Amino acid sequence: MRKKIVAGNWKMNKTASETTELIDALKNQLSPSDVEVMIAPTFVNLQAAVKQTSDSHIEVIAQNMHQAQSGAYTGEIAADMLKDIGVQTVIIGHSERRAYFGETDAILAEKTKAALDNGLRVVFCFGEELADRQSEKHFELVASQLKNALFALPSSDWNNIVLAYEPVWAIGTGETASPEQAQEMHAFIRTTLAAAYDDALAQEVSILYGGSVKPANAEEIFGKADVDGGLIGGAALNAADFNAIIVANK
Ligand code: PGA
Question: Which residue's alpha carbon is nearest to atom 2 within ligand 1?
Fold first, then answer.
């Protein structure tokens, strides 16, 4: 049975004191559920967040990491630094990293391999831009993003990979893919995985949807057969909204 997951990507939001406050609110407000709950605060607040959540079922994850093991990469963070402070999962390939920081499929392949080799779990993000969808290239584009970054990995690595399909045109725009568009793409992703590996593996990989998920639309999106949860940006910054989205993942 694949896992149901709701992950909050806090992006470049929340100071240290605001992080503590939001985690306190989450710990008070989260309803019990069988959904795996993750939050991704900024690097500077990770260690405190790991400590603060140690008595809860909230997992603290990182938003990014560098592919090298260590060395002269000013401003960067390595996998073993994350592991050392108790982080076990890292988001790789978010569209903002691709768009603003030049992260190509080749770099993301290296980052993913480095994360997995260091024993981290990866939430791997990908998805088409509006122009790709308008020119009906979205399936082709998504298949190539997966192939270029992930399909050289051995089957055994897939126990530690969660996929997050995030159409770029739906991120932070208020425009969500319809539940039908999400399901259509998630089913395609699973078929693509089955072709590259096998059906048993494809059935076990959790595929999250991301892009303007809100309490008002979460239940309908999560209700689709191949949608196993969500990667949430804006709505993860409010405890009540984040809880409502978690509860919607039945
Ligand atoms: P959003 O962001 O929910 O604010 O659209 C999603 C994401 O970037 O992961």
Answer: 233
Query: What would the DSSP string read from start to end of 18-47?
Result: HHHHHHHHHHHHPPP-SSEEEEE--GGGHH
Report how far ligand 1's centroid is from the alpha carbon of 230 (Å): 9
94 has catalytic annotation: yes
Residue ID of nearest Cα to ligand 1 atom 3:
233
Question: pTM score, two decimals?
Answer: 0.97
3-class DSSP state for residue 3? Answer: coil
Look at residue 95 and tell me whether its pLDDT is greater than 90.
Answer: yes
Is residue 26 within 8 A of residue 57, CB to CB? The reply is: no
Residue 38 burial (CB < 10 Å; 0-12/13-18/19+)? buried
pLDDT at 57 over 90: yes
CB atoms within 10 A of CB 65: 24
CB 58 within 8 A of CB 39: yes
